[in-house]
Design a protein that fits this description.
Chains A, B: Pfam families: FCD, GntR. 2 copies of one chain form a homodimer. Chain A has 238 residues and is mainly alpha-helical. Chain A has 2 domains: 66 residues, Arc Repressor Mutant, subunit A; 151 residues, Four Helix Bundle (Hemerythrin (Met), subunit A). Chain A has 10 helices and 2 strands. The structure holds a DNA duplex (30 and 30 nucleotides).
Chain lengths: 238, 238
Amino acid sequence: MEHDTDRKDSRASDEVVRLLSAKIQSGEYSDGSPLPAERSLMEELGISRTVVREAVQSLSKQGLVVARPRHRPIVRKPGYEAAISALESVATHLLDNMTGVRNLFDTRIMIEAALVRQAAKEANREDIAALKSALEANRAAIADSDEFYRTDNAFHGVLYDISRNPVLPSIHKAYSTWLEPQWSQMPRLPERNEANYEAHRRIFDAILLRDPDAAEDALREHLNNAWKQVCRTFDEQP
Amino acid sequence: MEHDTDRKDSRASDEVVRLLSAKIQSGEYSDGSPLPAERSLMEELGISRTVVREAVQSLSKQGLVVARPRHRPIVRKPGYEAAISALESVATHLLDNMTGVRNLFDTRIMIEAALVRQAAKEANREDIAALKSALEANRAAIADSDEFYRTDNAFHGVLYDISRNPVLPSIHKAYSTWLEPQWSQMPRLPERNEANYEAHRRIFDAILLRDPDAAEDALREHLNNAWKQVCRTFDEQP
DNA sequence: GATTCCTTTTGGTATGACCAAATGAAATCT
DNA sequence: AGATTTCATTTGGTCATACCAAAAGGAATC
């Protein structure tokens, strides 16, 4: 008879990973500074370089360190952004087809719809001020498509910030990063900028009027239009 | 003068990763079957075992293969669940304190609120039927707390399924997995089950009545209550 | 003070070896 | 014959060593 699952399995690197990530969180390895040299760790921990390298690679995939090819791994405290970066490699596979992108974009619509509803119901003066400021920056950049892209993104970012949940800004960054390839191939037309700015203004107005339904509608129309533009760019039927 | 970014950086394993993931996606390495032995790949590709192992580890972290410690890596086609599993290690770090859990739980409330709104607006007969069936299973399990937990989770899962966006069920699984530790330590009382079932019923009724606002309210109250229970369990002020 | 040049350090890769667990086939038992 | 045990082989995990090219750091130079 077999003992169904042998939980004795273990990789030596796992323990090293745990040890190192503990030292990172405790601040013993301060954020931004390089990890000790592989040979040092090897000696210090009494293990082979193989295991050290394996552990470092794990940490890298977990986003706890950034490991540029021939450089020392740089420590990066675990944050929600680190979590997102851990997803990057997988996301690449899921976004190589249009339906994958669409699925991700749909979640974005859903989340931002929820965000604007929440903003319409709970935004305080500072939130409104930040939103207004972002909107005006967006307006001022209508003529400059690159700058408009930035301010557009920033405007949406404010919506995520309003939630005051640190997870959400990270998600926004992820959306920006992963959907950027689609956006960057689109033609930048001032008239499009104008339309997008108007959409942002409608969203802002609805939030100002404390009207969640109107805010959600405006947001959905805005993002659906954006999706149509993407489809047109890639010759796909909307 | 520097050439800003030297794009010459590369790890030999990266190319191997690309090659192998291509063979996986093309089906040359069929789903569920083991990857060739390291020594085979080494010879076949004319590289050292070091690089092969490094590549395999990358594939593993990307969720393209599942590599149990002393077994052959098993090919697994990339899905959204693979993406979630990539987050697991980082999530652990973020969930070791109560605020981390709360932040995650808040996103859950937000997403499920959006889901029930959507369900109230767009659910079709089959969705309603699935929801009703899940609700009845939940009701039948009020006396059995373990079974109730399962059916409770399943009921919420249906909400994610209704979106018909394959990303969301994966997110549900992630929530279930990551928040399970909190739940499992809570006392299981039939009276609590009863109350939770009633909450589910209210949500269902609101969806049936096509009333997004009522559905959202019911959902929020339900999850906020759940959170209070968690807080009480862990002696934290709500 | 900035630049160039050189030495050392360090990460990336290749080899070869050994062990314990996993695998698969042969031998054995029922 | 079919299931079980036994044993030889394969294979992943780890270690040790070596070499190279790039990075890092410091010394000599402009």
